[in-house]
Amino acid sequence: MPTRGEETIIACGVFRPGLQHLDLAKRFPWLRLRFLPPNLHVNPFLLRRRVLKEIRAARKRNARITCLYGDCFPGIDELCAEYGARRVPGCHCYQMLLGTDLFERLIDETAGTYFLERELITDFERCCVQPLELHDEEMRREFFKHYKKLVYVRQPGDRGLESKVEDLARFLELAVDIRDSDYSHLERRLLALIGTDCD
Questions:
Q1: Are residues 22 and 31 in contact, defined by beta-carbon separation less than 8 angstroms?
Q2: Cα dihedral angle (68, 71, 75, 81), rounded to 10 degrees?
Q3: How far is the C-alpha of 23 from the C-alpha of 157, rounded, in Å?
Q4: How does residue 78 score in pLDDT terms, banded at 50, 70 and 90?
Q5: Cβ distance 44 to 72 under 8 Å?
Q6: Backbone dihedral region of 173: left (phi > 0), alpha (psi from -120 to 50 degrees) or beta?
Q7: Which pLDDT tens digit goes with each residue over 148-159?
Q8: Would you say residue 3 has pLDDT above 70?
Q9: Are 22 and 187 in contact (CB under 8 A)?
Q10: Which position among 60, 122, 143, 155 has the lowest Cβ density within 10 Å, counted as fewest Cβ atoms?
Q11: CA–CA separation, 121 vs 142, rounded Å?
């Protein structure tokens, strides 16, 4: 019976709870998961460099590569194509966590929707407040003047973040909407790329 070569998924850390929930590494022993810190998004150049480093390391192992990122830095599709990596379809991690239909419906319902998930909520000071200078009231109002609603994309492993979300919404002067993630969309897209049968 033929053996299966390694598959590597290079993913943003925001997807760690989802991939753990789906239990992909146990279901498919040939699968290797590599998570990068979500706060790399603050510096797209550094994010690109770290993703490229992981891709090159996977290529040295002759692994098939799947990149679980949205349009998180300029030229991500070209980078993946150059190195033979496949990218999971989707512009945003929130689109992948909620499913395209719900994601687009939320945006259509409220023009100016600001999405947050656990990693950004728990590290909002370092990821958003400091780099965007949101402690300055004028800067905060200028940055969020086109936003009307904060949508917290809650994942199954999240615990007790609702009060923190309410605090952030008051700080940003936004309404709050809490939506649970639906990993079925993410699972279908991943399985379509990594496959489940031996070559």
A1: no
A2: 40
A3: 13
A4: very high
A5: yes
A6: left
A7: 999 999 998 888
A8: no
A9: yes
A10: 60
A11: 21
